[in-house]
Amino acid sequence: MEITLRYIDRRELPGFRQYLLPATVRAVEQDDEDVLAIGAVSGRHSVGAAAVASTGPNSAALTDLFVDEAVRGNGIGAALLAELMEGLAEVGIDTLSADYTLKGEELKAMDALLVSAGFTAPALRSRAFMAHARDYKDHGILGEGFTPEWKTPKNVRAFSQLSEEQLAELLSAEDIPEMLSWRLLRDRADPELSVALVLEGRVVAYQLCEESQDGGFVLMSAVSRAGAPATAFTTLLTELLSRCYYWRGGFYPFYFSAINDHTERLARGLMRGKCVEYEEHVCSARLFAPDGADSEA
Predict the structure, then answer these.
(1) Rounded distance, CA 233 to CA 247, Å?
(2) Alpha helices in 97-162 (DSSP H)
(3) Contacts of 196 by beta carbon, 8 Å cutoff, 6+ apart
(4) Which of 291, 238, 282 lies closest to 257, judged by CA?
(5) Are 214 and 20 in contact (CB under 8 A)?
(6) CATH number for the domain including 12?
(7) What range does the domain containing 101 cover?
């Protein structure tokens, strides 16, 4: 199967939008130099795309890699990945990381593709789950968010409403795990959907959310800090589910991870077993210049 690869800019974006995450689409629309996207074309049709985002002076993360189901097994994913890795090495990026959440055969295929491209053996980072919002409209706690009677609690704010001082405090906070931090996830999180609980002018809890490729939403981070009430998690989750409901105009798939036993028990309790289990895997690769030498910093 013959394919051609092309870099995706605003003009090319319409043909590849369906293969990219919403955050990547926004970055391409804004000509974000920290995001690089490549699309694959067969004949006159786009068949897949991949993208990376800068995470530091000499590092990047693989954010998108999707091939149309009708043409999988033809080496398109490997070609997209190879082109990205070569391009990154040429500009001095020496480390590419990958963090992805899949299940079953798709997970096995992604693991195998990355290992064949030189990535380290994928490691399990967390369990992940997909629930459908319609299954929780009658939930004793979460169901309130799907009703006209639900009102945003007075101390809850969208991230778009937080002050510069509050956001700056989150960026410098040392009590928040890096993998859950606003500093790491702010470029992906949607500021209208992500929500925070503010007490005495300080963010004491927050949940960060982004749209998923299938029209659903992903809970990327849930943090409760010193001073947060015990109800902070469920209050913010109900508000977030409500915002997503009105944003989408109906019910939707909802994805979330459980990074430890406590959060997994909490998630399973809230979801009442009505969820599909996934795994979140992580791995990384050292990149080299085309001549075989290490990329220069």
Answers:
(1) 21
(2) 104-116
(3) 156, 157, 158, 159, 162, 166, 203, 205, 206, 207, 236
(4) 282
(5) no
(6) 3.40.630.30
(7) 4-125+281-286
- DSSP-derived secondary structure letter, 122: P
Residue type, 156: V
pLDDT of res. 207: 96
What 8-state DSSP symbol labels residue 120?
P
- Please answer whether residues 85 and 52 qualify as being in contact, where contact means their C-beta atoms are separated by less than 8 angstroms: no
User: What string of H, E and C letters represents the secondary structure of 203-221?
Assistant: EEEEEEEEECCCCCEEEEE
What is the Cα–Cα distance from 35 to 288, expressed in whole angstroms? 20
Average pLDDT over residues 212-239: 92
- Check residues 104 and 275 and name the one with the higher pLDDT: 104
Would 276 be classed as within a structural domain?
A: no
Residues 238-264 as b/e (b if ≥16 CB within 10 A, e otherwise) read bbbbbbbbeeeeebbbbbbbbbeeebe
pLDDT band at 289 (very low <50, low <70, confident <90, very high): very low
Count up the domains in the chain and report the number. Answer: 2
Residues 204 and 231 in one domain: yes
Tens-place pLDDT, residues 49-63 = 999 999 989 999 999
Average pLDDT of the chain to the nearest whole number: 90
CA 248 – CA 260 distance, rounded (Å): 30
Reported pTM? 0.72
CB 49 within 8 A of CB 88: no
Cβ(5)–Cβ(38) below 8 Å: yes
- Assess whether pLDDT exceeds 90 at residue 261: no
Cα 205 to chain center, whole Å? 20
